[in-house]
Input
Amino acid sequence: MPHTQIAIDGPAGAGKSTIAKLVASELGFIYIDTGAMYRAITLKALRLKIDLNNEEAFSFIYETNFSFKDGTLFMDGEDVSRAIREDDVSKNVSLVASYISVRKELVNIQQDLADDKDVVMDGRDIGYHVLPNADYKYYLTASIEKRAERRFHDNLSRGIKSDMDTIKEEIRRRDHFDSNREYTPLKKADDAKVIDTSHLAIDEVVGLIIQNVREEEVYGF
Ligand code: DC
Output
């Protein structure tokens, strides 16, 4: 039976993870959060106290195991979902995600995880690089104010208290870095549908995507 792949890309805080997770659960697909994988590698590097500016020191990636259970990322068997949201990880993840060797290895793993499965995958390079043949592609955007607000509440719900201005600044910095890196930057796939989520509730965006997928499955447009 053919499998269905849904790619969701966009800048930090556009609501990708929350939306992708809900779409996956509604459709009974597996959910793969690729940002969580870049964060986990950053977390491991910080714990190992390696020099983050030295790409070669990241060879530990080849002995790192990733698995997702109900959308939650386990690294080397440990649930790292909370630890990867800490400020230290957020501050350094763009640098780590700019290393070609790190990206190549994580993309291999992401493609293996998605192979032969009904999957929703979110990130920055999914639609045009990781899953270029995905059946459905979406690019989510939102104003910087909205995105900072969401990240603030997101953190709060995870028990992490943060400062709004710091979040805004960090999002700006991360967007700039993620969009301007040389290898597979944050970019919209040519055939992705853009959804501005600034004035939409989470369920409205989820509804739009589900409706679009179902209509295309039935009517083929
Ligand atoms: O979605 P997020 O904020 O958790 O992502 C964390 C970082 O990982 C983000 O700053 C950019 C990077 N990333 C990436 O470069 N490619 C992806 N496919 C996913 C995330």
